[in-house]
Amino acid sequence: MLTEIVIETSEYRRVIAEICNLAWSRITEAECIDVAWAYYFFSVQFRENLVVARELFPDDDKLRSLEREECCTDNLSPWPGVAAAGEKMNHDDFMRRLLDLSPIPEETRLRYEEEGKRYLDRVRASDRFTRALSIASYEDGGLEQVFRAILTSPGSTNPLVAAFRHFLSEHIRFDSDPTQGHGAMTRHLRPDDRILPLWQDFRDLLIEFAPSLTK
User: Fold this and answer.
1) CA 123, 128, 134, 135 torsion: positive or negative?
2) Number of C-alpha atoms within 13 angstroms, CB side, residue 153?
3) Is omega for the bond preceding 80 within 30 degrees of 0, making it cis?
4) Labelling 46: which of 108, 124, 128, 134 has CA 20 to 30 A away?
């Protein structure tokens, strides 16, 4: 008996694969810091898109649970120099704080903040339903794949890189449980290729901050 094979053709999934296939294993410690800066701006839009989803679906208990896991939570605490034991914060605030563990040149910081603002402006210009749908693609496997790829980069004793790797590892744990994880809290939103530009912008942001990823 032949088994029907379903081939996933979503273009946004192809972009996820492109991100995972970047040269993560060859980047330097300094480039890991650049990637952390890029991800910080992504984490801001993630929280903002989750807020949008909660506003569009105020009675959705699964999204309410996800919000508790991502916002004003201590599930990343403690971490030296970033979060005290039991300290609650949004996950993008954790990212913002860990960037201070290894300061970069002022000129570079200003450039990153300018590029990050342009990125956020593009995301914020998307329609609200598309932004809500993006949360499911992030939580239900998309970011877990990307995080696992990033973690193939060389380890480091740099405190910023160590904190970023903690962030990534914990999010893999949060997302990966098939019935209780963050993916299960969002799967019912059923994302489609309306979210493609958001994944393309994320890919381009990573490459803009760490060009050697394409080499």
Assistant:
1) positive
2) 30
3) no
4) 108
Q: Please give the single-letter amino acid code of residue 108.
A: T
pLDDT (tens, 9 = 90+) of the chain, 215 residues, equals: 334 433 345 899 999 999 999 999 999 999 999 999 999 999 999 999 999 999 999 999 999 999 999 999 999 999 999 999 999 999 999 999 999 999 999 999 999 999 999 999 999 999 999 999 999 999 988 999 999 999 999 888 999 999 999 999 999 998 777 667 787 888 889 899 999 999 999 999 999 999 999 98
Q: Which domains are delineated in the chain?
A: 12-214 (1.20.910)
- Write the CA distances from 149 to 18, 52, 87, 196, 211, integer angstroms: 11, 28, 29, 20, 16
In angstroms, the CA 164 to CA 33 distance is: 9
What does the CA dihedral 207, 209, 210, 215 come to, rounded to 10 degrees?
A: 30
Asked whether the beta carbons of 90 and 71 are under 8 A apart, the reply is yes
Of 94, 93, 88, 112, which is closest to residue 37 (Cα–Cα)? 112
Rg (CA), the chain: 17
User: Which residue do the tokens 């949360």 mark?
Assistant: 135
Global pTM reads 0.92
